[in-house]
């Protein structure tokens, strides 16, 4: 896997923390050249202190990017291509995690905000990057959905809608881009211990409840998702296209 990713140009959204950050570190260690974007400024030395002890990590570019803004997506991708000449892989990781609301309690603008980032953001980055990805050269997209894009849950209807949409959009992408040799796969994380996970935000009792629903008896780590993302980008996954990979530790219910 390391050889197939060395020197590849990988564009990552939502890279400042959580799964995006863990994936960035994984791919950097595998020799990829990274473009790390997030809606907040990424102070590389602060966000990635591990790099201070690893001078062999591959080059990394950071940029602020609001994926819901199509013009920004086009501009950042244009700057990347001017520097590198191409994009090999895209990890559409930027997203807003759920907050529990009944359907009649959704705050004004909440549904639109989730849709604009989780779904339209994936589309905007895809649209901007695709013209710069070479056909039949091992290029790929990995898009982030969720267990809530596979199974419904009460009080998170808006979030479920966006993650089901990412599933459908990604699988349609796979059918359209497959003949060009560009693969599209989806990761569906379950309960992952990240700063924005709703159980983590809610506190220890909620974490215990989440852990009780997992057969492995614990929440997953961002690094465990990153390992799967790196695999999906590698040549070892060259016949995976349109696949949804569940990363949930074995949910009981």
Automatic annotation (TrEMBL):
SUPFAM superfamilies: NAD(P)-binding Rossmann-fold domains (SSF51735)
CDD domains registered for this protein in UniProt: SDR_c
Residues spanning the signal sequence: none
Keyword set includes NADP: yes
Top-level taxon in the UniProt lineage: Eukaryota
Keyword Cytoplasm: no
Gene Ontology MF terms: oxidoreductase activity
Keywords: NADP, Oxidoreductase
Residue stretches spanning the membrane: none
Protein name, entry field: NAD(P)-binding protein
